[in-house]
Every structure is written in C-alpha cells, then in structure tokens.
Amino acid sequence: xxxxxxxxxxxxxxxxxxxxxxxxxxxxxxxxxxxxxxxxxxxxxxxxxxxxxxxxxxxxxxxxxxxxxxxxxxxxxxxxxxxxxxxxxxxxxxxxxxxxxxxxxxxxxxxxxxxxxxxxxxxxxxxxxxxxxxxxxxxxxxxxxxxxxxxxxxxxxxxxxxxxxxxxxxxxxxxxxxxxxxxxxxxxxxxxxxxxxxxxxxxxxxxxxxxxxxxxxxxxxxxxxxxxxxxxxxxxxxxxxxxxxxxxxxxxxxxxxxxxxxxxxxxxxxxxxxxxxxxxxxxxxxxxxxxxxxxxxxxxxxxxxxxxxxxxxxx
Length: 315
Description:
This protein has 8 helices and 13 strands. The chain is an alpha/beta fold.
C-alpha cells in the first residue's frame, strides 16, 4: 500500500548517512520504517536495546542503510504523545469507536476510553458505528450527552457505507488511532475507509455481546485520498480493561472537559465534585451542561481512584 508524507521525512540534515522515517509496523525484532515512499526493514542498534528503548508504531526514527538492504535504527526521536495500549506514538487524535447496539453501549467503558485519550493528550472523536441498528433518537441523545464536552459524535454504518466521508474529514492529515472494545467494527470501518485493505473481521456473539478479537498488531494505514499516514489499527485484546490506575484523583476532572469547565464555579479550590458542599459540578449534573450519565461515570471512576490511592498508602 502506498504511503506519502507532507512532513519532510527523508534525508536527515546534519547527520551524514542517516535518514529519517516513520515506523509503520513492528514484527518480532523488525521495524518497518517508511522513508521516501518505501518501507525499509530495520533493526534497533544494540545501544538502544541496552538502554531498554523500544521503537513503537508511529515513532519517527533516524536510521542508516545496510549493505545488501535493510537498515539500523540509530535514534528514536522525541515523542509528542504515547499510548501504552495500543502501543503507538505521536498520535494526534483518538477515533473512539462504540456501538449503541450489537454490542450494547457500555457508557462507563466509553467514558473510560475518553479519559485515557484525554490523559494521553489526544483529541477524541466519538464514532458511533452500526447506527443502522439504532434509532435516530438514540443517536441524538448521544450527541446531547457529549456536546458539553466538545466531542463530536459521528454516526456511521461501516457495512452500509454511511458516514464514511465524515470520518475521512476528521482524519484529515492527522495521525489517528482507532480505539474501542472488540465487536464494535473497527476493522470493518478501516476496510470501508481503505478499499483493498481486507482486515479480518469478526461477528459479535449474541450470547456474550462481545466480538472476536481479529486485530493482532498495530499498523499504520493510509486512508485513501488523504495524502498522509492517517490511521492506526489497534490490537483489541485487553482493551475492555482500560487502565487508569496511574491517574491521581485530582487529575480526573481535567479528563472530563465539561466537568473541568464547570469546576470554575465551585466554592472550594481542589473540589473533587463528590461530597463537597457548594459544588458547581454537582449542581449542574442532569442539566444541558452536564449529562447525568457523564457525572455518574465521573463519580464511579473517581471512587475507583480514591480506593486505589487508599490501598496504595496502606501498603
């Protein structure tokens, strides 16, 4: 598949013999680095291994060519963003894919995904797939829920080709990661966006309401007509346990944009918007400024973090 960049990836100025590229895929100890329109199979320089530095998909790297083909990664350039799961670097936005039906919407899991995206410094876009199985009212309620956070909700049916232009427009020339639990149709969506990609897709089990894990690695794929690497397919196993344990309780509110905005009206600085009096956030819960489900999920995640913090201090 052809890739192109408008970001000057190629020869590295001031470093003789070194070229700059982007890691588009990794397999075992091989990194596939895209430079000047072609992929080069590279290995890490031993020094980087000894320093326990590993290249991730999305990394910009400096590499030297080897006689007979292939290359050696000499340096991993500073990252702007890092996601641990899926392991991908330098992503600009997260296209968070969920469904209202098949599988049924898990609002707490969705908000957990959005917190992880915010925490990583990514701009989240909510892509509602399989909207042909939902009612227009259900889609509109989702818009009402996430509008105060500033999140755009894109209704899509990947199988029917509905809403794909909207997704392409949001991807633009940015590097995006598709995130979401299994069964919501991430691979189907990418297959629809990238003709000829032919990623494996799995059906949702009617009994357990989960999809089968079909994506087994992270790979950057170019969305047709957009002129830059624009999508990353994320490995789905383990995603249902999106971990926020490293978050301090006070750092949760900034990951809910509407909660953070409303908190300016709270009486106490450092208000956790839970049991404190004169809390502007609690007062707004259930209004057009803060959906009740968002507030309840904020409290649920906050209590999880408070419990983890208490446990940490007692051990």
